[in-house]
Amino acid sequence: MALLQRGSCGTMNPPGKYDESSDIHIRSGISEEEKAAVKKRKELVLTTLRNLGLNANKAPVVSVLVSGGGLRAAIACQGILSELSNVGLLDLVTYLAGVSGSTWCMSSLYTKSDGWQNLQKAENELRRRLQKDKWNFSHALTGLCMAAKRDDYSLTDFWSYTLVYFLTKELLDANLSGSRSQSETGTVPYPIFATVDHYFKRKGKEKTLKSWFEFTPHEAGYPKLDLSTPGAYVSTTLYGSKFKAGKLIQQEAERDLSYLRGLFGSALADRNSILTSIRDFLLKFIHQDSTEKQNLLGLYPKEIEGKGLVLEGDILKTIMEELVTLVYIFTTGGDYLPVLESLHFKMAGYKDFSQSQRMITKMLQHSRQTSSDQQRQSILDLLTEVLKHDAKEERNIRPFVQFIWKTFKCLLFWTWGTTNNFLYKYGDIKDKDLTDRENLYLMDAGLDINCAYPLVLPPVRDTDIILSFDFSEGDPFLTIKDTAKYCKACNIPFPPVDEDKLDQDAEAPSDFYIFEREKGPVVMHFPLFNKVNCGSPEVIKKRRETFATFRFDVYSDDEVRQLLEDAKANVRNNKERILGKICTLARAAS
Questions:
Q1: Distances (CA, A) of 101 to 132, 277, 399, 465, 526
Q2: What are phi and psi of 116, to 5 degrees?
Q3: Helix (H) or strand (E) holding 95
Q4: Taking the alpha carbons of 213, 214, 220, 223 in that order, is the dihedral positive or negative?
Q5: Among 149, 145, 155, which residue's Cα sits nearest to residue 400?
Q6: CA-CA distance, 412 to 381, in Å (whole number)?
Q7: By the number of CB atoms within 10 A of the CB, which of 180, 246, 256, 491 ranks highest?
Q8: CA–CA dist 87, 103 (Å, integer)
Q9: Distance separating alpha carbons of residues 242 and 202, to the nearest angstrom
Q10: Helix 312-331, helix 399-413: angle, nearest 10
Q11: Is the dihedral of CA 25, 461, 567, 481 positive or negative?
Q12: Which ranges of 312-371 would DSSP assign to H, the alpha helix?
């Protein structure tokens, strides 16, 4: 099984306290390290063009964008990259930018020393892994209990070790910074991983420049705060470390790519579906026994009056099951009072739960007269009492109990993507939205625009040609339409988009669309399922249903091969169009 693959250049920075100038960068444009990497990549692109017989002096910047779409997107992304390599187009690509599920494929490739050298081999390994490997309970539980020791534990950690690991059958303990050397040689496209800041999404400000937060091998941060304000970055190795007023005051270990995969791909379904998935995994952790769990939980026999010798772990298991139901019903808006009554009954006779019973009695008496926020706090207080989780005595909390309690708390407050804000109290930035928050809450960029257009467009990067491979489950043109609105709101040049025409094609699109104007990038758009590779609207509809984003069962190898082939066909059938446009722009620039 492909577990815990460590990049040859991966770094694990040990926690520690520092009192020195931080590594925060406030600037317009990309980093010097990225400039150097892109310069080398452009040299390779130029050589490739000349080998094709084109007498070019300047290489156009080609950005491949791969959209979100869960495991469907991860598999299709592999197919796209394999075929771009197979037809000789990959060496013309400067940037590869991904959202959500596509980043699962990207992260796997960039952490393997030979991931890009033989993409057919990588494709075969993907197929083998999806068919042969399994989600490992002990690996997941151990990883979660370790993650729960961090102050910034959130549902993103839970998601990483449960659903993302379950779908991809892969854990990556390598770090993104470990792919620097590979990126710096110019032999691979420079990678960009997209997220958005939940604060701006919640405030209705998602169609702004500063809502986007990117990760590259060298830096993480806001590419642009607004048209007149530079971007703000921190070294990728320091993402998650504590800063105040521009000073690094507590360095934390760099987050590994298993965590980042959960961060990048955290929005695969509606809230209730996600809650149901989390509930089911929590019950699995509580029900299933293992040596690791026994060590993490600690099982001690207790003499209970009227019940004889009872295993403490069995008591906790029964109560935890009820607590999972309590939190799930509350967070989904159901009537949780019957669960409280059941809890009260099952706690009878156990002195350890006498205070909890009194709290439940009070909750049953007053819940109808309290607000939702007050009810949420009362439930949290009950959870804290039941699990005996006192933050002041956290070192004495058994790891499994700590993990369960922190997950319950994150569920109640729907906490995702928690990290320390490197711009906290940073005096050189006047925007209080950015500097007053001690924590950031990052989320899947697919909740905003399901494709990373804002990260390859001006004023962040100057792309000449965008190859947009859309793996969305629904409208295959939504990313284009959303980007056009984003660019209009931010005054960024973008080709005109005829929404009426695209709406007419949405149910049965073609395999190729081009959007261009005199100023701005050329956009070539490729819907995954289309009339060319599927043959009919009925087959397109069937494919979309078969490969739903929140599909929870295992893909058969035939289904994986079908997805790969559909993706490859979009490259193979449009090779000449892509190459022709790249050559046209190269000639014009020369």
A1: 20, 17, 30, 23, 17
A2: -95, -10
A3: strand 95-98
A4: negative
A5: 145
A6: 11
A7: 256
A8: 23
A9: 24
A10: 10
A11: positive
A12: 312-331, 337-347, 354-366
- 189-200 pLDDT tens trace: 999 999 999 888
**Region of residue 182 (phi > 0: left; psi between -120 and 50: alpha; otherwise: beta):** alpha
Tell whether the torsion through CA atoms of 241, 242, 247 and 253 is positive or negative.
Answer: negative
Check if CATH label 3.40.1090.10 holds for domain 25-133+169-265+426-456+549-589: yes
The CA dihedral of 537, 539, 540, 544, to the nearest 10 degrees, is 140
DSSP-assigned letters across all residues of 105-133: HHHHHHTSTTTTT-HHHHHHHHHHHHHH-
**pLDDT tens per residue across span 520-555:** 899 999 999 999 999 999 999 999 999 999 888 889
Give the 3-state DSSP-derived string for 515-563, with helices as H, strands as E and coil as C: ECCCCCCEEEEEECCCHHHHCCHHHHHHHHHHCCCCCCCCCCHHHHHHH
100, 160, 266, 277: which is the annotated catalytic residue?
100
CA 455, CA 214: separation in Å to the nearest integer?
A: 8
Q: Amino acid identity, residue 501?
A: K
* Predicted confidence (pLDDT) per residue in 39-68, tens digit: 999 999 999 999 999 988 999 999 999 999
Domain ranges of the chain: 25-133+169-265+426-456+549-589, 271-290+311-413
Catalytic residue among 157, 197, 444, 482: 444
Told to judge if 21 belongs to the known catalytic residues of this protein, a careful annotator would answer no
Look at 26-40, 83-97, 140-154, 390-404 and tell me which has the smallest mean pLDDT. 390-404
The whole-model pTM stands at: 0.91
Band of pLDDT at residue 300, cut at 50, 70 and 90 = very low
